[in-house]
Structures are given as structure tokens and as C-alpha cells.
Amino acid sequence: MTSSRYNPYQVTDRNLALELVRVTEAAAVAASAWTGRGLKNEADGAAVEAMRRAFDTVAIDGMVVIGEGEMDEAPMLFIGEKVGAGGPGMDIAVDPLEGTNLCAKNLPNALTVVALAESGNFLHAPDIYMEKIVVGPALPEGVVDLDNSIEANLKALAQAKKCDVSDLMLCTLDRERHAELIARTREAGARVTLLSDGDVAAAIAACLDDSGIDIYAGSGGAPEGVLAAAAVRCVQGQMQGRLLFEDDGQVERARKMNPGADPSRKLALEDMARGDVLFSATGVTGGALLRGIRRSGGRTVTHSLVMRSKSGTLRFVEGHHDYHTKTW
Q1: Which reactions is this enzyme annotated as catalysing (predicted)?
Q2: Is 95 annotated as ligand-binding?
């Protein structure tokens, strides 16, 4: 007799979460062969091809809606590409190698990233910049707002956390465009952590209690913003975004990708990633979030994070892969 509590979708959902780990593991191992070689496009290309092959075994009818960025002029899992072995229709958001420069220079926090949701649940974001702000869970709704000054946001966040502004740590990309944000944050009394690359990992870190990061703010890639939103959904954090346009052509492209929506509107978290979301990331180089690829003899050790918005569960998965029997 079938139990009345049996939920086939939930079983499929759980299985897909583990399948996504295999996809990011495969990409991370392939990219790691290029770590420290100074060849970011070759590392990215290896990750792309490994991720494509791994998706061939996943039981979904997937379409890439967030793919590799055109800014990098690197190989792409392109927007509109179909992946999967057949099954339920899914939107796929990928960054086969977040932090190509980090991998090329063997610097911390290079990751391989995949997010998955039912069709129509991810924002179709063009390869432009997005203004972003992220804080963690267990805070009053709307405690920070993209339309508020950084000083006002820091003050509100400190009040919500029952601490002083001087106790807060803001994380942002180390870019000239953030010079004013950095200066005003420090003048307000808060501290700043600067990243050379990798704002998906930074957005996740802002939602984890033991990361030392209280808030992520600034502008970065819009595709990475959607991936970050998927992760933030899974950990019940808060995030807002807004697309930043350089010309009318970018505005028109965003309008075509999301018909009927104001392309310049402030984006709430669920405007970017809604419904049931799955997220997986595997470390290529070690960092605050994940350990990097390790090799010993005929074995490779991977360290991954997999999350589901439905359950809110975070799982850190350590995989030990034997090259004598492993097929990717």
C-alpha cells in the first residue's frame, strides 16, 4: 500500500539536489587542472565542457536562462541551450567557473555554481551590471533597502542585530566604482572586506552566521545576481537588486527578455528567483565558504554546498573520487 504521506515530487526534488552536486563537482575537477596556470579562458572552457557532459545524465528537460557572461569572451553554456536527459521542465542558472581570474591565479574563492527551478521562475538577466544588497536571515523584513543610503542601512542593520555599526562588516568587490561606497561605509564606522572577484560566494557569506560578513553591497554581474538570489532564497536571507544600464540597447534587451516588466524596477528577491529552488556550488580554490580541490594519488577530494529552498537545509558534501572507477 502506498503511504498517504508519500510525495513523489519531494523524492525527485531531493534526488535532483544530489545530481546537481555531481554537476558542479565535475566542473570543479576539470577547472582545477588549470589552477595557477594563468589561463582563465582555458579553465572556464574545461569547466563548461565538463558541466555539459554531467548534465547529460540528469533527469530534467532543462533550459539555460542564466549562462556564461559575454563580458568574459569565454566559452559559454549559452542562454537557450537545452540540457538534461529528459524529465520535468526546469530553468537552469549556471556559472561553470565563478572567478576565472581567481582560478588562473590560484587565489581563494573560485567556485562552480548551478541553480535550478521550475520553468519560468528565474529572472532572465542580460549580461550587464546589477546593483545588489544582501543580508542574512532572522532579521526584520526590509531591514535594508537599495533605495536607502549606506549609512541608513548600516544603522538599521546594527539596530536589528543589537550591535554597534562599528561591529558590522560590509563586503564588496574591489572596484573603482565602489570607492564612494567604501569610503562612506568606513566613515559611518563599519569595516570593509574587499574581494577581487566572486560575488556569489560573498552574497552567501552575508547569510551565514560564522562568515564574519554582515552585509554585501555594490554592483556586479546581473547573471551572478540571479545565482546569488537563488542561494539567498535557500538560506532565507534578504536581497534586492536593480539592473544598471549603459545604453538604450541594453534596456531594450532586458525588456525583450522579461516582457511586460519595467526593466529599471527595483527587484525583490522573488523577482529574481521564486518557487522551489535548488542550488549547488563546489570549490575549485579554497576560501571562506568551501575548500578547494585536493588530489592525492589516484583520488580527488571535492567540497560542495547544496541547498534547497523548500527545506532550508544546507548540506556540505565532501566527495572522494577514485579515478580508477570514476566516470564524469
Answers
A1: beta-D-fructose 1,6-bisphosphate + H2O = beta-D-fructose 6-phosphate + phosphate
A2: yes
